[in-house]
Design a protein that fits this description.
By secondary structure, the protein is an alpha/beta fold. It is built from nine helices and 13 strands.
């Protein structure tokens, strides 16, 4: 089994309708022209990443406009669609939520962002997520063939324990739709992707929107795929494009055999409730 993953680095504009049309067009190209069997969209791909615009595009899952469009695209093109993330409205609360749609248009996974981002790392706060969203509290996985895939969203990439939990569950690929600003991306984007891949001897994919220099939060771009050795196997520019990578799954066995760190872990020492002497 080979996974051909396509990261859709689309340019997000101030129109939900145009963003959805662009996303569907690019999903079609990823499947029909590039033969991908897993297609990934960025975080908050249907609206610019500002509090006002995100509030305006909130919808219920799975009945909302974006969900219906993604379900139809997955079914029409016969492909798994990792729908980046959208603002989910549920019982009076908002969540930053990733949906995954199977080749028959069925909803196969839903993941609500666990680690919400309140950060001034780049010198300014664009969206204080804890004031807008409720944090999720569950992991989410889905399978393509025999490959189990774990989901995170943007800020989740900074938490090594979170990724390792997915690896412990048997995940071989971790996918993170994300919106990262340029100053932070220049320092941490590749480093975090490589670290999560090396930590867990897994494939890792980060999917960003394309760069828009007129946006309030200017996305870094440079969507990428990293292999279990920590090597970048595909990397986008900052512009709108589709990045496609063939994941050679037999590499997982080779890496894990040659460097058996998961067999050497001292989990008896890692619980912080254990006292020191």
């Amino acid at each position: 089994m080979t996974i051909k993953i396509a990261l859709i680095q689309l340019r997000v504009v101030d129109s939900k309708e145009k963003n959805l049309k662009n996303a569907i067009d690019l999903i079609r190209i990823a499947k029909k022209e590039k033969d991908a069997n897993v297609v990934v969209l960025p975080e908050c791909f249907n609206a610019p990443y500002t509090a006002d615009t995100l509030l305006n595009v909130a919808e219920e899952i799975p009945t909302g406009e974006t969900c219906r469009a993604l379900s139809n695209a997955a079914r029409d093109f016969g492909v798994h669609v990792v729908g980046g993330s959208i603002v989910e409205s549920c019982s009076g609360r908002l969540y930053n939520t990733c949906t995954v749609w199977g080749p028959e248009g069925d909803l196969v996974a839903t993941y609500r962002k666990v680690h919400l981002c309140d950060s001034s790392l780049s010198g300014k706060m664009t969206v204080a997520e804890t004031k807008l969203f409720t944090a999720g509290s569950k992991y989410a996985t889905f399978t393509v063939g025999e490959t189990r895939i774990g989901l995170g969203i943007c800020w989740d990439m900074r938490f090594a324990e979170f990724a390792t939990a997915y690896r412990t569950m048997g995940c071989d690929l971790l996918i993170y739709p994300a919106v990262c600003d340029v100053p932070t991306g220049e320092q941490h984007w590749e480093l975090l992707a490589k670290a999560r891949a090396l930590d867990n001897q897994a494939f890792v994919a980060f999917c960003s929107p394309a760069r828009d220099t007129h946006a309030k939060l200017i996305p870094y771009g440079h969507s990428l795929v990293v292999d279990p050795w920590g090597r970048i196997i595909q990397r986008a520019t900052e512009f709108q494009e589709i990045v496609v990578a063939d994941l050679v799954l037999k590499e997982l066995t080779d890496v894990r055999k040659r460097i058996p760190v998961f067999e050497q872990k001292r989990t008896d020492l890692y619980d912080l409730k254990v006292g020191c002497s």
